[in-house]
Amino acid sequence: MNTNPVADLHVHTTASDGVLTVDQLPDAARQAGIEWLAVTDHDRIHPELSEPVTTRDGISIIRGIELRVDAGDQRVDLLGYGVEPTADLVAELNRLQEDRQTRGRRIIDQVESRLDVELPIEPRPGIGRPHIARAIADSEAPYDYDRAFGELIGNDCPCYVPRAVTPVGRGIELLSNACPVVSLAHPFRYPDPEAALDLVDRLDGVEYVYPYGRDVPVDRLDELCNASDLLRTGGSDAHGEAVGQVGLGSESFERFRRRLQGAVS
Description:
- The protein is an alpha/beta fold and about 260 residues long.
- The chain has eight helices and nine strands.
- The protein folds into two domains: about 5-85 and about 180-265, Metal-dependent hydrolases (TIM Barrel, Alpha-Beta Barrel), CATH 3.20.20.140; about 90-155, no CATH class.
- The chain has helices at about 25-30, 85-115, 130-140, 145-155, 170-180, 195, 220-230, 250-265; strands at about 5-10, 35-40, 55, 60-70, 75-80, 165, 180-185, 205-210, 230-235.
- The mean pLDDT is about 95.
């Protein structure tokens, strides 16, 4: 991991399942010593970011998105940067958000019925299971956040409800038509990393640094990036208040920035 990043290109806000608002991002970035970050909310373009790149209080904020796609044997995440929404992308995101809210209502109803409690939450755009887990922890139910996921709403748990996911080919097409840079998120986090990496020949980049437990085999990623002329992206996947703990170093970011700004300027 890069311990002195200059940019965090994977940040979530209250538009999905993060805790920071857009207005809070500049202070968080300054505390981390970075000047660039990308807002990559789940299946949603942040409604308060009006341009592909904006500046707030001296911090450059990239309008991005993290889109989950169905790759057959597994689901993977794609990161789009510098989004200029197309009609087709907006229609697909609206479909996904409607499904998220319907799914959220079903999960909440099942949890309330099972535990005989009332959760302090209502479905809204961007709702995800982390919101519901926090609501369970804040209720009278004897569950903290981790137990809520592990015993109630996690995959294969009694209150789990699956959600709609975009097919991989369609997702790549939609993002490629709307974003100058599309990257594969955290490739070694998936059950089959090599199958996920097979997708990068249809993308612009791959997430090179991220904060999860297993060491990222950078030699494999270097080989892939050099062979396919891929951009390196990277970030903290921040859902909490701290950003910039993981991110891109200056050389990789400069190459990314040139591609991004060349397309959106």
